Amino acid sequence: MSIVRDAEIAATPTRGGFATLFSNVNRWRVPLSVLALCILPWILPSQALAVNVLIYGLVAVGYNLLFGYTGLLSFGHAAFFGAGAYATGIAIGAFGVNWFAAMLIGLAVAAVLSVIMGVLAIRTRGIYFSMVTLALSQLVYYSALQASSWTGGENGLRGFTVSVLNFPGFSLNFLDPMIKYYAIMVIVALALWFVSRVLNSPFGAVIEAIRENETRARACGYDVERTKLLSFVLSGILCGLAGTLSAMHLSIVPLDSLHYHTSGLIVMMTLLGGAGSFFGPFVGALAFLSMEDVFSLWTSNWQLIVGVIFILFVLYLPKGIWGTLISWWKSR
Amino acid sequence: MNTPIMSVAGIGKQFGGLVALKDVTADFREGQITAIIGPNGAGKSTFFNILSGALKPSTGTLRFRGADMAGVPQHDYVHRGIARSYQITNIFPNLTVIENVRVAAQAFRSRLNIWTNRDLYKDIEEKAAATLASVGLSARAGMLAKFLAHGQQRALEIAIALVADPALLLLDEPTAGMGPEETREMVALIEKLAVDRTILLVEHKMKMILGLSDRVLVLHHGQLLADGTPKEIQANSEVRRVYLGQNDGYA
After folding, report:
1. Which CATH class is domain A6-331?
2. Does A15 touch chain B (CB under 8 A)?
3. What are A283-286's contacts with CB under 8 Å, separation 24+?
4. What is the domain extent for residue B67?
5. What is the pTM of this model?
6. Residue B149: pLDDT above 70?
7. Do the chains contact at B111 and A203, CB–CB below 8 Å?
8. Chain B residues touching residue A200 (CB < 8 angstroms)
9. Size of interface A-B (CB pairs under 8 A)
10. So what's the ipTM on this one?
11. Any idea what the CATH number is for the domain that residue B207 is in?
12. A-chain residues near B160 (CB < 8 A)
């Protein structure tokens, strides 16, 4: 499958006007992304949809680090999203921890889980890697289902609410939809900045080299397994962060957030937007959730329509929405 | 200099029931160009994969500068001074030509740093650019590697190995699929490289080997059939029988 890469943007030998514009856009990708997120709630039909785009966009961006940049197709990233959400919810509901500490606990749990799953999965390659991540994440799902005294089992985790975000010196009313959106957006923006730094780092070059040619990367002197593990864990932590935000946003953690449906959703959003591009996964989340929003008004079988569109994308626009736009821009 | 930089003793490799390599013993002296020849299936690739750490031998020991390499993971070989190129072009296709070399150079500076902007490593970039210039690819630096012509990809292949500045350079059929002109350029490049490093190469083009190398090893059915100067090898009746005689000039 051909996927657009940021490297291609820099690769244009002769730069036309649009290509130059694009290289500038790429340099300012974090501020521009944040700007787009700032106006999102004003152009989308509902606030709830906008918050969902933020959260799932972050999941997809985190996933893209592993899938689009390192070239590892995981079918188990719901585990990290769900684990972050459950850990945050339990920390607040059962232990009365404040929101910030609960977030850190969510991140820590997602990190530990991704180290464990990563160590086990990275020993395998290709389809086996995907299958191992899928199996391990289902293990987490069934554990959560069984441990119902902690997790609420099938009913999901309830009984915790974050109504105020306390900071030293001031506090924010988290029940106000606008304040909630922008509070979550600030955290997502910080995560985007982090991802952008990682992609520009030496490590960012190594994961792309591994995606392109694992054998050669190893011969060049890189410990491929350790690099993949670090990518897996970073990606897991970002998905965990999205999970903690989701828990605080919804005040409930549905059991489904751990299910492989969610993992599939993450893969679909990333592909739809454009794997291996910085902002693509966000566009994918926006497109997917908007389609859900619109089509579910017409029919309860909205997945049928989204599924057909997804298949058309995979067949005819494998670079995804954003990836296709990028190549079109560059070629101008 | 006459100290062996690499020595193999009783090296053998089995894949299941297949014996690919059997009891090969040889020392490689610093500063020499050694060619490894042999008919298809003679065990050249297996031998090369063992020397570069991609395969571990079933029997025997491999020593580099006196150190046993048995427990050394493959990715450490290049850090110790052994780099290789591949017979089938093995580059990073969707990265730019300069990035192919830059990322190889970066392995000696930073591998798991997730925070520093890599654009700050100007020395790495300069080293990559200089290496690219030495194989004549400067004009193609910004292109995606997959769009290079075959000969240029071969040159990039060598550049990726070369930027590691290895003491021992293993070249697996560096002129594979090249025409006469490109082959001449490659030979000139190898001669230039040999000035300050040891080179081992697998080749099929006999004329090229006889002119270029100081020493030739002949493998046949996984065993070392002959070991000597190009002249001795040419005169060796056993070698002529299994290899040279069949098809003069090219096997």
Report:
1. mainly alpha
2. no
3. A283/A320, A283/A321, A283/A322, A284/A60, A284/A320, A284/A321, A284/A322, A285/A52, A285/A53, A285/A56, A285/A57, A285/A59, A285/A60, A286/A40, A286/A53, A286/A57
4. 1-72+198-251
5. 0.92
6. yes
7. yes
8. 117-119
9. 121
10. 0.92
11. 3.40.50.300
12. 216, 220
